[in-house]
Specification:
CATH topology of the largest domain: Dihydrodipicolinate Reductase, domain 2
Shape: globular
Helix content: 25-40%
Number of strands: 15
Structural class: alpha/beta
Strand order of the largest sheet: 14-13-12-11-7-10-9-8-15
Number of domains: 2
CATH superfamily of the largest domain: Dihydrodipicolinate Reductase, domain 2
Order of helices and strands: EHEHEHEHEHEHEHHHEEEEEEEHHEH
Radius of gyration: 21 Å
Strand content: 15-25%
Distance between the termini: 46 Å
CATH architecture of the largest domain: 2-Layer Sandwich
Length: about 350
């Protein structure tokens, strides 16, 4: 079997530390070309990963190179347009999360990928964690009975990233779109992708740009992306999502807040016959009318490596990926609903809201 020819659009931090090394380690892959508006950065990555072709324009790369697939690792606002462009050239796509910043545009991408019979996968890395897979299997085995409530959170007390993340025009939102998308997607997937009905959301820029001493923060490896020159997004978000099945989910996410930090996704799921948690990784139930807490023992894996390898396999075998575009679009629909509810300062009916938008 010939190697899968890969191009990468956007050569920033997630490409350098996530996509590129794992493509390079996959013996079924040939890294062919990089495209980035910052040509200097692209050339640095090309030298590091022994790639000879560099472009300042993604379409030029797609025109000139015979590619099987691309990774899109740009700012959020560019995801959908670039994915549609690549699909138009007959190329499969792995687009970083979130799928984009507009649900309507995400639906157009879903339709385009279906019409062109191209794979479009969204980079929801946490689904590939062994811990996540374990919880998913327990839920699917109906060990919890009727699931009625889930708590999901990822809370940083001082962890605002630098660069375009705080610029709404490029990111589409703050921690909700950055790390909240991972938390919401993971819980929603574990629970079987129920359909959201009502959402009550709250977004707040409570801390903003800070100068707290002696604490590290995420900083882009790109020197041009290390300042929060624009800060017009929230740094804390919370939501209550009511699903049509009767399940209720509570979500909390922050970049900065005055409280205890976990900085890792926490998920707790409660059912009539049992419950599970992600951190600690446990299953809760009764045995002979005695309450029991069972710790699950799974090996740590490299979820980013598994994500990349899964995408490559889907391209080779023409199989549906674990995170198809339509699921990425549905998660974005819920994220937009949270934001809209916060704007209106009231609970909203998702279906009614999108009918008005149309």
């Amino acid at each position: 079997m010939s190697k899968v020819k890969i191009g990468v659009i956007g050569t920033g931090t997630i490409a350098e530390h996530g996509h590129l090394p794992n493509y390079q380690q996959n013996t079924d892959v040939e890294l062919v070309a990089f495209a980035d508006t910052n040509v200097v950065r692209a050339e640095q990555m090309a030298a590091k990963y022994h790639v000879s072709k560099v472009y300042s324009d993604a379409e030029e790369m797609l025109k000139n190179e015979k590619l099987d697939a691309v990774s899109i690792c740009t700012s959020n606002d560019a995801h959908i347009a670039l994915a549609k462009l690549a699909i138009g050239y007959g190329v499969d796509v792995l687009v970083e999360k979130p799928i984009g910043t507009s649900y309507q545009e995400a639906q157009e991408l879903v339709e385009r990928s279906e019409q062109q019979n191209r794979i479009c996968m969204v980079g929801m890395t946490h689904r590939f964690r062994n811990e996540s897979q374990a919880l998913k299997q327990i839920v699917e085995a109906n060990r919890l009975g009727e699931i009625y409530y889930a708590k999901v959170k990822i809370l940083r007390r001082r962890g605002t990233p630098t660069g375009w993340f705080s610029d709404f025009s490029r990111s589409g939102g703050g921690p909700l779109m950055d790390i909240g998308v991972h938390a919401l997607d993971l819980a929603w997937w574990i629970l079987g992708q129920p359909e959201a009905e009502k959402i009550s959301g709250f977004l707040k820029k409570g801390i903003g740009s800070y100068n707290t001493k002696l604490l590290g923060r995420w900083e882009s490896s790109n020197p041009y992306n290390r300042k929060n020159e624009v800060f017009d997004v929230e740094d804390f978000a919370a939501a209550l999502i009511r699903f049509k099945s009767g399940l209720v989910m509570n979500l909390e996410v922050s970049w900065a807040m005055n409280g205890a930090q976990d900085d890792a996704i926490g998920i707790d799921v409660y059912g009539t016959e049992g419950g599970v948690s992600l951190d600690p990784l446990c299953y809760y139930s009764e045995v002979e009318q005695f309450f029991t807490e069972a710790k699950l023992d799974v090996s740590k894996n490299n979820p980013m490596k598994d994500e990349i390898n899964h995408f490559v396999s889907c391209v080779q075998k023409r199989t549906t990926p674990l995170i198809p575009a339509e699921q990425g679009a549905e998660v974005l629909r819920m994220l937009e609903g949270i934001t809209e509810s916060s704007k209106q300062n009231q609970e909203i009916l998702l279906d009614s809201f999108y009918q008005k938008v149309k």
